[in-house]
Design brief:
By secondary structure, the chain is of the alpha+beta class. It has six helices and 14 strands.
Length: about 325
């Protein structure tokens, strides 16, 4: 077997010299390297597959993963507590605070919604949908959004509370027509009745005051004219006053409207005159009260036995008080 030549530099003469290397020596060296590699692979296989042990790096990563999983579990437990506390605040807000001031509730779809618009979770898109990290981030974002909504709700309630002193003058509290004898008679109460045109039983959402055209119609409480319009096939000439605190009043079938949309009115402000515009069988005032968008019985908000003198004094005094402000 020919010998292999191995070249090297002589440090003394600085000349390139060579020495012959036996192929057997090279083969032995290669065999040792291969045997070592096979032994390493065998030990690795025995360590991992037979003994079921982890590689050092894998073991370190697993320990770190266990640590992060414990932190996520603790964070989710805290989120559960915060969510429960926030839920109690939301219930109290809906059932007490907003209800007391006649404010509409906040829909659950708004309270429970997450963040829209820009994809806030782009960095998590590569994770499994069941990833605890992704679910925790989503829960935390929703909790932040719900806390923000609740904070804004308290701001609204606080503003309404500052106006609570005006509540008495805003809530409907008098008859929309003078209570002088012969001014009107109540022709149709609130509730189900036989429709005077079709004869079919139908819910009547207000009270009807039969009276001659031209009777003065007064605002039953302070507020803002939300609408002053005409509905030829329905209410005819109609005025809606928003009194705040969840209350609205509607006056229909008027012959004349004396206010305009957006106008501020006080209890006793002249809104117009009675008539028979729209879908009617005779001259009358159709009067409604709505509380938080639901119809309520107007009879509960006025005293029809109030004398004409007392009625006039209430309107005069209320108007005088607001003229001073």
């Amino acid at each position: 077997m020919p010998e292999l030549k191995h070249y090297k530099v002589n440090p003394e003469t600085l000349k390139i010299e060579f020495e012959e290397v036996s192929r057997h020596r090279f083969a032995k060296f290669a065999l040792v390297v291969v045997a070592g590699a096979l032994l390493f692979v065998g030990v690795l296989w025995l360590y991992v597959s037979v003994l079921g042990l982890d590689l050092p790096k894998t073991a370190i990563l697993k320990r770190q993963n266990v640590g992060w999983a414990a932190r996520l579990e603790l964070m989710n437990a805290q989120i559960d507590q915060y969510d429960k506390v926030l839920g109690d605040l939301e219930d109290r807000d809906e059932q007490i605070y907003r209800s007391v001031y006649g404010m509409n509730g906040i829909p659950s779809a708004v309270r429970d919604a997450g963040f829209g618009g820009v994809n806030r979770y782009a960095s998590l898109d590569g994770l499994d949908g069941r990833s605890e990290l992704k679910k925790t981030v989503l829960r935390l974002d929703r909790l932040i959004k719900k806390a923000y909504i609740q904070s804004k709700s308290y701001d609204e309630v606080g503003e309404m509370a500052r106006r609570a002193g005006d509540m008495a003058s805003h809530i409907p509290a008098i008859c929309p027509l003078s209570t002088a004898p012969g001014s009107f008679h109540m022709s149709s109460p609130f509730g189900y009745r036989s429709d005077p045109i079709t004869g079919v039983s139908k819910f009547h959402s207000g009270m009807d005051f039969a009276c001659p055209p031209g009777n003065t119609i007064y605002a039953v409480g302070d507020g803002v004219v939300e609408s002053a319009s005409s509905d030829f096939f329905g209410y005819g000439n109609i005025v809606i006053v928003n009194h705040g605190f969840g209350y609205k009043s509607r006056y229909a079938h008027m012959s004349r409207i004396a206010v305009h949309e957006g106008q501020r009115v006080t209890r006793g402000t002249v809104l117009g005159e009675t008539g028979q515009s729209g879908r009617v069988t005779g001259p009358h005032l159709h009067y409604e009260i709505m509380y938080r968008d639901d119809f309520v019985n107007p009879y509960d908000f006025m005293d029809l036995d109030l004398s004409a003198k007392d009625y006039a004094e209430i309107i005069a005094q209320s108007t005088k008080n607001h003229e001073k402000e």
